[in-house]
Design brief:
Chain lengths: 648, 247
């Protein structure tokens, strides 16, 4: 049975939709809030801000994270900044312009109403964070500073050095700590959600594993919020943290939540290139570097060869022999084109043989011009910590020689399908932040992930969840002594025992690396019908291999990292196939999804709005059974869907 | 490169631990220290042995999850970086490297190199915040803040909460951690409002949880992966004393 999708987008003018909706939805009285329990899974920007705000409102909140402290969530690693339509720079920014840039940046595959709301609440986020004591960068007059980011022609990005995610998360974590102190939120660290419990068609709680003792626990609630981030680690090598995973989202999908646009993956253009075969993860170099850094490869093949042999240094190559290919191809935006465009352009040059390191998979990001123009001190002040980090990792001083960069998997725009209230197809189950699919379309703009996580957590969910919970004010405490909980707990325990009993010959990491290679080669920056069909076959075979031949040492009832990794990989092996299926279905190119068969003469992504102006929502149909597709048509009432143009 | 590793192994919080020796070979000099442990662990799994448990996550030096005393130094031999940012080129080929968990009564071992740092969360829960509600705030530009103050606040806010300071301190004091939070908020007008309450509550919680007193040896500053200055401890002391005088 296909989904009956109701996006619940309110009627009316774009700018009035959120106000109208807030006026129309139900609220819960303070006395009744005290009787209602909410589970929040994940403590990044979305989860922490939601739990803190819900706790303030008076709900009883339980929050779960897999790390030893809520502050470790991977939001902490976001470097560059957070967008808001404050127009503090007087450069003609507005809510509408932020909305338009985001819709266009997402290549017209996001909902207008959601994106407009995001832009609308963006300004509140900055106010909130300042009040919490987030030390944003300031001008000499003491007012907030901004910088530019990709996909925009205005300066609207607020930042705290190269550690904006850290500072925003510490703000949300502080708000969370305040509520933990006040007793409205209870924190469960080193706990991993392993299943969602559904009863009478509604979310009623979760099964979690205490990662220290291995104990399997039941937690019931009137609503469950998934804020567990993205699934980029399906590629093994990505900029995500080592433990970031898609399992909570996948369990929701397995229990009936729609999963939307799984193939929309963001490949970030400025990461440190891969070295060797034993690397564990990739490191991002913030997009903010593209404010002052210029991206280039040599024009002449002889220079490329000299670089690889080491007979020439990059600084030896004369200005007229450098191909600043982004400035050449996209004069209006230059080095600040959106991420998908910059990544594909780097791939195009490297595929043509101009890659600048021994693997041929790197381009230069050069600060020579900026240092000449502004002086080393200014560059050091702006990017000092990023330059230091680059030197630590590569042993090359970026003040003297350009950085080498290459695209890497960074973010997943796809995720659990949600309606305008951020509720999934399962009543009482919500998804926020990167875990949902709603706001970034086929490509996310830089500095918009932080914005969305905090928008959802501080300013959207605390209102919209009331509309559902208002119907639960008479409901008693959710009992966990029910057949649904029994069944979910048993399934989790069976799965763990099965994994521990296989005792095969391949480690979890071995199989995960192999999955990553299949994904990168076939479901990466450029995809074809052939590569996707190949990936589907190979992933299915690898999944069989995993369940027959994985070796998971240790026990179920102890701290067991191998078991944690195995449980996550089991789900990645499903998610990878789902991504390939979605990419195969979407016979067009849009944003981060590039089907080689569908490009313009100039090699740009070619959308087919007549056939694919929809969100592809997938429904789980069982193990090794093809999922079923339901389409949510994306209606553009207020913007004209154009071919994206960053040239003029 | 080849290395001999002496690694602390401990089954769980209640068991007695011991050093065990392992060999790793053919390690590229560009491999990070934690990738080297990954390689060791992958070998151990193939042999059917339990891998070495250690904390890590972002591997970019920002999440604060990684720890370790490497050859007696918190976060290894380099200055101002976390363990995940240590690369094997910093060690001599053939070296013997000793790897231990944080040694601090307030951070009990969970397994091998993994410790419980929940005490740091508890200190922050006691008062490490500005008591503002969501949406009950003025415009972001309503209060100008001198750039130098914002920068100094940011210097202190760079703390990643890894625990190196308390693990390094001979008294097991968490003063640098507490000071970083108190000082970061004390430099901002938003944080001044409840400054006295914050300093008292956080110091009281630190004492209650069994952390030691500060005797100004400066070891915490030397080992802090973010280079947090002990000048912030001086500010915490001022805040704390001023708060006491107010009482």
């Amino acid at each position: 049975m296909a989904f009956k999708l109701d996006s619940k987008i309110p009627a009316g003018e774009l700018s009035q939709k959120w106000s109208n909706h807030k006026a129309a939805i139900k609220v819960v009285s303070p006395a009744n809030k005290r009787k209602l329990d909410i589970i929040v899974v994940g403590t990044g920007l979305g989860g922490a801000s939601a739990a803190a705000s819900l706790g303030e409102l008076g709900y009883n909140v339980k929050i779960f994270c897999i790390q030893d402290s809520p502050r470790r969530a991977h939001s902490i690693a976001a470097q560059g900044g957070i967008n808001a339509a404050k127009n503090y720079q007087n450069d003609n920014d507005s809510v509408y312009r932020l909305f338009y840039d985001t819709i266009k940046g997402g290549d017209y595959r996001a909902r207008e109403a959601n994106v407009y709301r995001l832009a609308e609440v963006s300004n509140l986020i900055i106010d909130q964070c300042v009040a919490q004591g987030v030390p944003f960068a300031r001008e000499y007059g003491g007012l907030l500073a901004n910088r530019s980011f990709g996909g925009a022609q205005v300066s609207r990005t607020f930042y705290a050095r190269g550690q904006t995610g850290q500072q925003l998360l510490l703000g949300a974590y502080a708000a969370l700590n305040k509520e933990i102190h006040n007793g409205s939120v209870k924190s469960y660290t080193r706990h991993e959600m392993l299943d969602i419990v559904i009863e009478d068609g509604e979310a009623k709680g979760i099964i979690a594993r205490n990662l220290v003792t291995g104990e399997i626990e039941r937690h019931g609630a009137h609503a469950v919020v998934i804020a567990t981030g993205g699934y980029g680690n399906v590629f093994f090598l990505s900029t995500n943290a080592m433990a970031s995973n898609g399992s909570a989202a996948f369990q929701c999908y397995r229990k009936g939540a729609g999963f939307a646009n799984p193939c929309f993956t963001q490949i970030h253009p400025t990461c440190i290139p891969v070295h060797g075969t034993q690397q564990s993860k990739l490191t991002l170099m913030s997009e903010s570097l593209r404010n002052d850094g210029r991206i280039w490869v040599p024009k002449k093949m002889e220079d490329v060869e000299a670089l690889r042999k080491g007979t020439k240094m990059p600084s030896d190559i004369a200005e007229q022999d450098r191909d600043y290919y982004l400035e050449r191809r996209y004069p209006a935006f230059g080095n600040l084109v959106p991420r998908d465009v910059a990544s594909r352009a780097a791939k195009e040059r490297c595929d043509a043989g101009y890659g600048v390191n021994e693997t041929g998979l790197a381009v230069f990001l050069d600060f020579k011009t900026a240092i000449e123009r502004l002086g080393k001190e200014v560059i050091e002040k702006r990017y000092g910590n990023l330059f230091d980090m680059y030197k630590e990792i590569t042993d090359v001083n970026p003040y003297e020689q350009p950085m080498q960069i290459f695209p890497a998997v960074h973010y997943t725009m796809g995720g659990i399908w949600v309606d305008y209230n951020l509720m999934t197809t399962i009543p009482g189950l919500y998804a926020i932040g990167e875990a949902n699919f709603s706001d970034h379309g086929a490509n996310r703009l830089g500095a918009s992930a932080l914005m969305q996580g905090l928008a959802d957590g501080y300013f959207v969910l605390p209102y919209t969840i009331g509309d559902y919970l208002a119907k639960k004010i008479q409901a008693p405490k959710v009992s966990t002594a029910t057949p649904a909980f029994d069944e979910a707990e048993k399934a989790v325990k069976d799965k763990i025992n099965k994994l521990l009993s296989i005792n095969g010959s391949r480690s979890v990491d071995d199989i995960h690396r192999q999955l990553g290679l299949i994904m990168w080669d076939n479901v990466g920056m450029a995809r074809t019908k052939e590569s996707l069909e190949k990936a589907i076959v190979e992933i299915a075979a690898l999944r069989k291999e995993f369940w027959k031949n994985v070796k998971v040492v240790g026990t179920a009832d102890s701290f067991n990292v191998e078991l944690e990794k195995a449980l996550r990989l089991a789900d990645f092996l499903e998610l990878g196939e789902l991504m390939a299926r979605d990419a195969l279905n979407r016979e067009e190119s849009c944003g981060g999804h590039f089907r080689s068969e569908h490009q313009t003469e100039e090699g740009e992504a070619l959308r087919h709005d007549d056939k694919f102006a929809y969100a592809a929502v997938w429904e789980y149909k069982g193990e090794d059974v093809e999922p079923e597709l339901t389409k949510e048509d994306l209606v553009y009432e207020f913007t004209h869907r154009a071919q994206r143009n960053y040239k003029d | 490169m080849n290395f001999t590793l002496k690694i602390w192994r401990q089954k769980d919080a209640h068991s007695k631990g011991e050093f065990k020796e392992y060999k790793v070979s053919d390690i590229s000099s560009d491999t990070s220290f934690l990738e080297m442990l990954d390689i060791l662990n992958n070998d151990l799994v193939h042999k059917g042995e339990e891998p070495v448990a250690f904390d890590h996550d972002c591997r970019e030096g920002i999440c604060g999850m990684c720890s370790l005393h490497i050859d007696g130094h918190a976060h290894g031999p380099s200055q101002a970086v976390t363990t995940c940012q240590i690369y094997m080129r910093q060690f001599k080929d053939g070296a013997t490297i000793t790897v231990e968990p944080w040694r601090s009564a307030a951070f009990p071992v969970i397994k091998d190199l993994v410790v419980n740092r929940g005490a740091y969360d508890q200190i922050l829960q006691a008062g490490g915040y500005v008591s503002v509600r969501t949406n009950s705030v003025p415009d972001g530009n309503a209060i100008p803040i001198p750039q130098a103050d914002a920068e100094e606040s940011m210097d202190a806010a760079a703390c990643v909460g890894c625990g190196a300071c308390a693990a390094t301190c001979k008294n097991g004091s968490a003063m640098l951690f507490v000071a970083a939070r108190v000082s970061s908020l004390a430099k901002l007008p938003q944080g001044r409002v409840e400054g006295a309450r914050r300093a008292k509550a956080m110091v009281a919680k630190m004492d209650e949880l069994g952390f030691g007193n500060c005797t100004n040896t400066g070891a915490c500053q030397a080992e802090c992966p973010k280079g947090i200055s002990i000048a912030h401890i001086a500010r915490l002391n001022r805040e704390f004393l001023a708060a006491k005088f107010e009482d």
